[in-house]
Design brief:
Blueprint: E1 4-7, E2 13-17, E3 28-30, H1 40-46, E4 51-56, E5 61-65, H2 71-88, H3 111-131, E6 134-142, E7 145-152, H4 160-175, E8 181-185
Parallel strand pairs: 7-8
Antiparallel strand pairs: 1-2, 2-5, 3-4, 4-5, 6-7
Helix pairs in contact: 1-2
Pfam family, one: Nfu_N
Family: Belongs to the NifU family.
Organism: Roseovarius aquimarinus
Length: 187
Amino acid sequence: MFIQTESTPNPATLKFLPGQTVMPAGTADFPSAENAGASPLASRVFAVDGVTAVFFGNDFITVTKGEGVEWDHIKPGILGAIMEHFQSGQPVMADGGTAPSGHSEHTGEDGEIVGQIKELLDTRVRPAVAQDGGDITFHGFDRGVVYLHMQGACAGCPSSTITLKMGIENLLRHYIPEVTEVRPVGV
């Protein structure tokens, strides 16, 4: 098994490509080791000292390291944990389950607008940020303000504010006049 790595716009995050499907559908975000119980793979990766977050996409694993930790010191351990997991035959998610991820539900009078927002995110935004090892999901819509949740490499990325304001906000405002602003939400 050969695992490729790619840098991301977030210097604290690396993208690992195991050459096979990680999540057949959706994504899984583990912002801390306490959240990793649902995934044998995430648990193995968190066992490497210095790992602070793990994110799964269709064919990649994004790992975030702590401040003051060097990639040269932890990358071999992460590669070993990923290789060990896939060779063990264990599932990525325990009990065939999936981690909670994806768009938040929205009920109310703005349902049609929210549907348009989610459609644009799914077709234009999420594929692009997945290439950088992250994901951006809908969290809420209130009085013209769209709230988005940043995951994987996008969480804590220095360029995420620019991506939100210059990219996503402009895109949504162009296609949906009711949108006036885009803001990130915390975990």
